[in-house]
Amino acid sequence: xxxxxxxxxRKIKTYSISTRSSKVNTNDFAKPYQKxxxxxxxxFDLPDILIGEDFKQLAEHIARAFxxxxxxxxxxxxxVIKCGLSPLIIQLMQCGVIKCLAxxxxxxxxxxxxxxWGTTSEDVAEALHDGSFGMVQETADFINSAxxxxxxxxxxxxxxxxxxxxxxxxxHKKFSILAFGYEHKIxxxxxxxxxxxILHQHPGTDGAVLGELSHRDFKIFCAQVARLTEGSxxxxxxxxxxxxxxxxxxxxxxxxLGHNAHGFTTANFDMIRHYRPQVNIVQRPTQTGxxxxxxxxxxxxMIPLLAAAILEQI
Length: 314
What we know:
Elements: H1 39-44, H2 50-67, E1 72-76, H3 79-82, H4 86-94, E2 100-104, H5 105-117, H6 124-129, H7 137-152, H8 157-167, H9 177-183, E3 188-191, H10 207-225, E4 233-237, H11 242-256, E5 265-270, H12 275-283, E6 291-296, H13 299-313
Parallel strand pairs: 1-2, 1-4, 2-3, 4-5, 5-6
């Protein structure tokens, strides 16, 4: 027999499960898949539990925002383009769901290469070995030419690249998000951190021009954020640092100038959870109303699923 004192469990107080509040109920379970069912039915049959419930709620929020013509802003890292998702982003812009799009600096590189040559994304590890990483001449020449023209016309960075692609003989321009935005007057802003993109390695790149156009895009983006109201939507696809930081500054500018940018819905989609999207997209902006969601998964699966869920409802 142990020499230590033992608690007497016979004195424990219990209660009936009928009086307990439970988080899981069979009414919320997933429905068995029926062969030949529609995508709309598939989404509807997801479990009303945890992220399954959140996903359906977000799709409904976005559909309602579309139906009431509320502002919907999407921000995305360049990996979304590299995953082959440009056609879906363009589709959501075309049907009026996405009304403003923000990119990081790498976004213009991959969009430009896709539009002009139908290929992008080099083998970084291999090219880094001999110092050839990011040294493709044509990409830098095209973008720098667009920036030079854009400075003369006082355009933002996104509009300048979109204009150049749209007016060029780029054989794959139908896949260009930037060209589509320019042609349909949908603001696409680009937010650059000097030193993060291969463009900055090239001798023809003018940091002053790059900074001028990107700063103009920040002001354009602030004007779009100022249009957020109750029921609006903000989505972040895969930007872990740059765009969550840009959004937070744009939001404080909008609120500082007296705009009622409160009560909107936010959602972050990424392959892992990061600190800045969690606090700058999901938590802080919705503290005064609205709701924030976080979804973890690969872009090439999650974004098509979200797009389909939205399109089925509008």
